[in-house]
Specification:
heterodimer, A: mainly alpha, 6 helices, 0% strand, B: mainly alpha, Rna Polymerase Sigma Factor, Chain: A, Arc Repressor Mutant, subunit A, globular
Chain lengths: 112, 179
């Protein structure tokens, strides 16, 4: 494995995408090649710094719920959201259960 | 496309507000995080995220599902961020939060280092910045990012590696070491 091959595979090494065998071969090369090893270590360090420097970017809970409400309101106004179904009254529930019961009960049993 | 996203999107196309809420909760934090890191401003990120969700939900019926829903959303966030950056604006300092456990000297050093990394990132071409934020900070897959930036997967992978090298070289320049 020469330096050119190693440098081609460095991104895969950084992302842990190599097979164990290939990783071993690469690491052996890096042990004996200060230039390639510097290439690896400086890239890894830049990546580490990038991740460590990323500011926390958590949205505020209040803002999140306000935005969801605004989206729902706009959706209803513009018609791409359907209005929520009306809540079912107890009377409607009783009627629905009677209908189901009648459908399930054979006619003979109801009119012997 | 992610099966669950696909189901939610189909329900949203029929006007189901619960499906819209579920999609929103799945992606609001990440969309906001991407915008925030791109623009260095919570206020701008809130505005852009709201605008992006409104666009995807409003046009959900026209989405043909050729790529991931998340890629579509992030592509819109990215385009809106780019539009925002083209507008004249006040200079915005990178977001910083104090680390309560660090000593004063450590805190100053940490801020200095983070500032340098933010400067290095900002000095890179926009496509490199998007790649580094989406892949290395937000943790999106190569496939998702390729759909967002409109390139093939191999091209995205190669660009991503170049972006990392460009960042490394810029950091070495800023810290006064030869690249």
């Amino acid at each position: 494995m020469n330096c050119e091959d190693v440098r081609l595979l460095l991104p895969n090494l950084l992302d842990s995408e190599l097979s164990e065998e290939m990783e071993d071969r690469l690491r052996k090369h890096l042990l004996g090649c200060p230039d390639c090893d510097r290439e690896r270590s400086t890239l890894a360090e830049a990546l580490r710094l990038l991740k460590a420097s990323a500011p926390s970017a958590e949205p505020r809970d209040l803002w999140k719920s306000a935005l969801l409400e605004r989206l729902e309101k706009t959706g209803l106004e513009e018609g791409w959201l359907a209005p929520a179904p009306e809540p079912v009254s107890p009377r409607q529930l009783v009627l629905a259960s009677l209908i189901v019961e009648m459908k399930e009960q054979p006619l003979k049993e109801r009119n012997p | 496309m992610d099966d669950f996203d696909e189901q939610l999107l189909e329900r949203l196309k029929r006007g189901d507000s619960e499906a819209m809420g579920a999609l929103y909760r799945r992606y609001a934090d990440r969309a906001f995080g991407f915008a925030c890191r791109f623009l260095h401003s919570h206020e701008d990120a809130e505005e852009i995220t709201g605008e992006a969700f409104l666009k995807v939900f409003r046009f959900a019926r026209d989405f043909r599902g050729e790529g991931a829903f998340s890629s579509w959303l992030f592509r819109i966030v990215r385009n809106l961020c780019l539009d925002r950056l083209r507008q004249p604006r006040l200079i915005v300092l990178p977001l910083e939060e104090a680390d309560a456990s660090a000593s004063f000297t450590e805190e100053v050093e940490r801020r200095e280092r983070n500032r340098t990394v933010a400067d290095a990132l900002d000095s890179l071409p926009e496509e490199y910045r998007s790649l580094l934020i989406l892949r290395d900070i937000e943790g999106l897959s190569n496939r998702e990012v390729s759909e967002i930036i409109g390139r093939s997967e191999p091209a995205t992978k190669s660009l991503h590696h170049r972006a990392r090298k460009a960042l490394r070289d810029r950091l070495l320049e800023l810290w006064g070491e030869p690249s």
